[in-house]
Amino acid sequence: MKIVKKQLFILTLIILSATYSFAQSSTEQEIKKLSMDKWQWMADKDVAKLEKLFDDKAKFVHMSGSWRKDRELEIIESGSIWYKNADVHDTALEISGNTAVVWNRITLTAFVRGSDVTTEFTVTEVYQKQKKEWKMLALTFSSVRDTHEIEH
């Protein structure tokens, strides 16, 4: 009888561990997809989807300055910065409670001040689960060398 209880206990631990791992990787997949979708929405100038994603108090840090949600949406909609393509080379993600931080190493091709420019960045994105939706709280572009690697 003791052997059966021990085996049942071990089986229960395995099932709980697998369930936790699946849930965690499911959340990670959701955040990574959201991050990738965001790049496409920026390229498409889809401010309706971005407006829903960006928290009202979100902050955006670029090479030329920092601003809030309304200004970022205006920049995207007007095309004063057109995020034409973000080629994502590497992604790291950490989740703590209802907060997720994503680091993307990208090569960004953007139309800025009348010209296409290509720049290497590590972009830091901060998301927070609010009710049932993830909202972006911050997006920061850090200029890096193309040999830069994200530590996982």
Describe the structure.
The protein is α+β, with helices and mostly antiparallel strands. It has a single domain, classed as Nuclear Transport Factor 2, Chain: A (Roll). The chain has 3 helices and 6 strands, in the order ααββαββββ. It has helices at 2-43, 47-53, 69-78; strands spanning 54-62, 65-68, 81-96, 99-112, 115-130, 133-143. It has a 6-stranded mixed beta sheet with strand order 2-1-6-5-4-3. Strand 3 and strand 4 form a beta hairpin. It is globular and about 80 Å long. It starts with a helix and ends in a 9-residue tail after the last strand.
CATH architecture tag: Roll
Helix/sheet category = alpha+beta
Judging from the principal axes of the Cα atoms, what is the shape?
globular
- The total domain count is 1
> In what range is the share of β-strand residues?
over 45%
Low-confidence stretches: 16-23
CATH class: Alpha Beta
Give me the strand/helix succession: HHEEHEEEE
DSSP helical segment count: 3
Question: Which strand order does the major sheet show?
Answer: 2-1-6-5-4-3
Distance between the termini: 45 Å
